[in-house]
Amino acid sequence: MATLRFMATIDIHGVNPFVPVSAARAAKIKRDWRQPMPVVVRINGKPEEPWHINMMPAGDGAFRLYLHGDVRKASATRVGDRVNVEVGFDAAYRSGPQPLPPWFRAALAKDPIAEQNWQALPPSRQKEIVRYLAALKSAAARERNLARALQALAGKPGRFMARSWSEGK
User: Fold this and answer.
1) What is the pLDDT of residues 44-82, one digit of tens each?
2) Burial label, 29 (beta-carbon count in 10 A; 0-12, 13-18, 19+)
3) What does the alpha-carbon distance between residue 90 and residue 84 come to, in Å, rounded to a whole number?
4) Domain identity same for 115 and 85
5) What is the pLDDT of residues 103-137, one digit of tens each?
6) Separation between Cα atoms, residue 129 and residue 143, nearest integer Å
7) Considering the domain boundaries, does residue 31 fall inside one?
């Protein structure tokens, strides 16, 4: 995989830090791509293992390379910093539907309201939750987060994944 290297300033869109990628640069990564582009990225040579992410189309062939907090933390960067960007197309990246962890699927099956609210969530929110749950390492973390997820999806007010939930959304 060829890696494109360039300098850019971290900007912000809403609350999301990003690096703008011009149409000319994006074409060097993958010509004529108009949808979210799967890439691997490193900022100032960090993290050691390149981060997998989708660059988001910004119009006219340009993209926004949103920078996950882990990437910014590893590279010790913030909005306004001028950085070295390394980005390359990631043909192996699959961002489609993720399978539900079996323990989460079983818990949803026992709570019809939570399951109904789960089905009503947009696919992007479902994907975000599944990725979060799948990354949990310990049984204690799974139990704790499962309880929070079910409470949120059952319609009880509370916080889960840094969001306030009410009525299952």
Assistant:
1) 999 999 998 989 999 889 999 999 999 999 999 999 999
2) buried
3) 19
4) no
5) 999 999 999 999 999 998 888 788 888 888 888 88
6) 15
7) yes
